[in-house]
């Protein structure tokens, strides 16, 4: 073992910490609401109400939480315009844009295979 390798316990702890952080990121960007919001922001800036109206089934509270989480992770930017009433817009950051192709690919895959998944679920349920 070289000095650069470090103590095996330190290396394991560092790997475990990284694994945990990666899971945290995947939990955020892999949620159904985050995927949809990222996709909706693909074309450009959107206001809260525009996003809410384009994401069927999302509550105001869940959209607020999703936007805050994506903002905290640096994936979207929130801009408040100093007008009355205040106008707030959301857009993908440069980092968020790096996810757009992946998100769209995953959404497209789900759309392409939803019937196959439904059949598999039905067959599984029939066996159970």
Topology:
Blueprint: H1 8-29, H2 32-40, E1 46-47, H3 48-54, H4 60-72, E2 76-81, E3 87-92, H5 94-127
Antiparallel strand pairs: 1-3, 2-3
Helix pairs in contact: 2-5
Q: What is the average per-residue confidence, as pLDDT, rounded to a whole number?
A: 91
Q: Work out the helicity level.
A: 55-70%
Task: List the secondary-structure elements in sequence, H or E.
Answer: HHEHHEEH
**Judging from the principal axes of the Cα atoms, what is the shape?**
flat
Rounded Rg: 20 Å
Adjacency order of strands in the biggest sheet:
1-3-2
Tally of structural domains: 1
Which CATH first-tier class would you pick?
Answer: Mainly Alpha
Main pleated-sheet profile? 3 strands, antiparallel
- Beta-strand percentage range: 5-15%
The third-level CATH topology is Arc Repressor Mutant, subunit A
User: End-to-end span in angstroms?
Assistant: 52 Å
Kindly report the name of the CATH homologous superfamily.
Answer: Winged helix-like DNA-binding domain superfamily/Winged helix DNA-binding domain
Number of distinct beta strands: 3
Low-pLDDT windows of residues: none
CATH A-level architecture: Orthogonal Bundle
**Secondary-structure class:** mainly alpha
Tally the helices: 5
Protein name: Helix-turn-helix transcriptional regulator
Keywords: DNA-binding, Transcription, Transcription regulation
Organism: Streptomyces endophyticus
Domain HTH hxlR-type: 20-118
């Amino acid at each position: 073992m070289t000095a650069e390798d470090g103590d095996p316990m330190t290396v394991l702890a560092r790997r475990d910490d990284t694994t945990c952080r990666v899971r945290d990121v995947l939990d955020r960007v892999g949620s159904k609401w985050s995927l949809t919001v990222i996709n909706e922001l693909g074309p450009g800036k959107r206001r809260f109400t525009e996003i809410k109206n384009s994401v069927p089934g999302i509550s105001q509270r869940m959209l607020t939480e999703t936007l805050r989480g994506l903002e905290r992770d640096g994936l979207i930017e929130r801009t408040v315009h100093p007008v009355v009433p205040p106008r707030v817009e959301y857009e993908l950051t440069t980092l968020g844009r790096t996810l757009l192709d992946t998100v769209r690919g995953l959404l497209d895959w789900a759309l392409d295979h939803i019937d196959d998944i439904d059949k598999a679920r039905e067959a599984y349920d029939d066996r159970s």
